[in-house]
Amino acid sequence: MSQSVAGGTKVAKNTSVNYEVSKGKEVKDVYIGNAEQNGSSESAVTSYFTNKGLKVSRSEQYHDSVPKGNVISYSPGNGSTVKEGSTVNIVVSSGPKPVETVSLQDLTGMTQANAENAIRNAGLSVGSQSTKPSSKPAGIVLDYSPRGNVKPGTAITLVISSGPCKDGSHTPDANGTCTVCGTTGLAVTPPRGDGSTENP
Ligand SMILES: [Zn+2]
Hints:
10% of the residues lie in helices and 26% in strands. The chain is mostly beta strands. The chain is rod-shaped, with a radius of gyration of 41 Å. The N and C termini lie far apart (115 Å). Residues 195-200 have low confidence and may be disordered.
């Protein structure tokens, strides 16, 4: 503080005395508008704030629709007024949350009991089962679904062999393969003529 007349000086009534009061360093107000006006990338939004004399603190979150590296939100938000030099918090997307999956081993050729154990040990559940004649012994897993990487708890459907046709009563096709169970190398009976009209 300073004044135009030294302290202790006698002056006439109504003499004007000029003085100044120090106000210290003035801190400017900063208006926050649309921080994504130059795009939603972390760098664009960060530049927006630093250009206004603000500091940026960042954190990350998974987000289903905001692409990885883009800003999900900022706080204080659009329309706020803050002091120059204050900190704005931005939340940056780290992309969608990864879906946890389980890798299921190949079950084909396993016994039904072993396959069911493998399914449960992988954190999955045993789904519906059906049987189908095949050249494999009864009780062997022929097929299953879904395959590969699946979500935990998924029900796995099994197709189990009911074995070859009973008593060897196969139904061979022209190549000696049973059309019911798939057993190969069967005798072709009864004879089907010279075959010239079957495979033109
Ligand atoms: Zn058969």
